[in-house]
Amino acid sequence: MRHRRPLSIVLATLLTLAVVSPGSAARDWPPYLRGSDEYPAHIATAVRRLWADATFTRTVSAEPVPVPLAFYLRFVDTPDVTAAAARHLGLTTYRVRVLGGDWYEADDGNRTHGVYHVLVRDGGRRVVVSWGTHSGSILGTIGGSALTRLEFTEARGGATQRLVVNAIVDNGLVAGMTRPVLLLFGWLVDRKLGEAFRTAATVAEWAHGTPDAFCAWLDAAVADERRGEILKVFDECVGADRTADVRP
Question: Among 2, 17, 48, 226, which is most exposed with the fewest C-beta within 10 angstroms?
């Protein structure tokens, strides 16, 4: 996040953080979501557009995470904690704020800002719809949206991770450029889409491998109204020794 990247990489970074009801056609509605009438109209409209008219679609599989799936999912489901721990470890500049009702706000402290809503939490599956903007000196502010399906499974004591993203770039010129650029640099886009996985995995490995350091950091880092909720998730940190060195 600290260096300039090709436009396609910036866009990929920006657009990235069921049962089918009768009448939900596979061609215009994701089969892994509930029926469209079960979502607010603006959410259903955004999802339908992303499913049927995406600027591009990518599927990315990342390296398995050597921590138990249940442990890893706690970091997936508390993105504010994961982002804060990642900043502590020097991995990223991103911040995440909980808005309530499974809505989150994220920014890189500079030019990129977004909001996202978790539509599904079902076992190892998470489905997220997001909107974001990136401001640059060449093309100005570019907006986009994404529908992202994340799949996590248990594998030999660890967790496998995979995502499928449908993204729309709202700037017509850039959207037209994105398709040929992806053909040439798809592997770079895949790498950037996998960054969130790698960041969360590193944080989870740190917390799992050095629980005293993690709990000491968490005790110092979470001091607002989220504290009670967070300690329910990371209950092993309740009453833990706070004298551990919190450095990574």
Answer: 2
Q: Which residue has tokens 């700037």? A: 171
Residue type, 86: A
- Work out the mean pLDDT of the chain and round it to a whole number: 79
Locate the domains of the chain by residue range.
7-66+97-195
Going along 83-207, which residue ranges are E strands?
95-100, 103-107, 112-122, 125-136, 140-155, 158-169
Query: 112-149: buried (b, 16+ CB within 10 Å) or exposed (e) per residue?
Result: bbbbbbbbbeeebebbbbbbbebeeeeeeebbbbbbbb
Answer whether CATH 3.30.530 is correct for domain 7-66+97-195.
yes
pLDDT tens per residue across span 25-78: 447 899 999 999 999 999 999 999 999 988 888 888 888 999 999 999 999 999
Helices H / strands E in the chain, number of each: 8, 7
pTM of the model: 0.80
pLDDT (0 to 100) of residue 72:
96
